[in-house]
Amino acid sequence: MISLKSVVHSYKDTKPISFKDWQINNGEQWLLLGESGSGKTTLLHILTGILKPKQGEVNINQTSIYSLSSKNLDQFRGRNIGIIFQRPHLIKSLTIAENLLLVQSFAKLPEDHKRIDEVLNSLDIIHKKDAYPSTLSQGQLQRVSIARAVINKPALLIADEPTSSLDDKNATAVLELLMEQSGLNQATLIVATHDKRVKDAFTHTYSLA
Ligand SMILES: Nc1ncnc2c1ncn2[C@@H]1O[C@H](COP(=O)(O)OP(=O)(O)OP(=O)(O)O)[C@@H](O)[C@H]1O
């Protein structure tokens, strides 16, 4: 279970943003909606342990994440949280498989080539395993981003505007893959977007004012 309690954040010289309390049960799929500037990215950073809020508490499966030391928080994030950004941030000098091996090693998990093949197969991108990111299409790169996010079977999968740079066909495919991949591991899925094409796929919505 993930919970957000009495969370408020303010950046230097800006007015504080209050986030209403939020409770998410394991395996639920949520849409995070909000106008530009309403605080979606801020909230995702708070939920993923990147940004400590000025006030309030964030719990992920009974762990109050901001009570962890920074070393333990890094490891917790690597093992429990997968993040998909609007654009894939892959390391250009490494192959797709090597990029995925790096994610296992950051989380201090053993190299697991079988798991890499399994994930790349399920995302229909195994043929690009030994290719470099610059040789992949935008849609293929987004599938690799999903592979990277799910490789360690995280309990929480978070996507920040995952479809906004894709055409209709790829946007639908990426959304279906996100739902399918989170379902495979019973992971909780949170997708932040203002892409109207994806709204209907979700039953739960958290809206920022
Ligand atoms: N590092 C920062 N320093 C100061 N103010 C910031 C910083 N990051 C965000 N803000 C401000 O906080 C508010 C929320 O920003 P945030 O990026 O979370 O919004 P958003 O909903 O993700 O917007 P968008 O949909 O346009 O990406 C905005 O007013 C923004 O200007």
TrEMBL record:
Key word ATP-binding present: yes
Keywords in alphabetical order: ATP-binding, Nucleotide-binding
InterPro entries reported in the protein's UniProt record: AAA+_ATPase, ABC_transporter-like_ATP-bd, ABC_transporter-like_CS, ABC_transpr_LolD-like, P-loop_NTPase
Domain ABC transporter residue range list: 2-209
This protein's GO CC annotations: plasma membrane
One Gene Ontology MF term: transmembrane transporter activity
Any one Pfam family match given in the protein's UniProt record, by short name: ABC_tran
Name assigned to this protein: ATP-binding cassette domain-containing protein
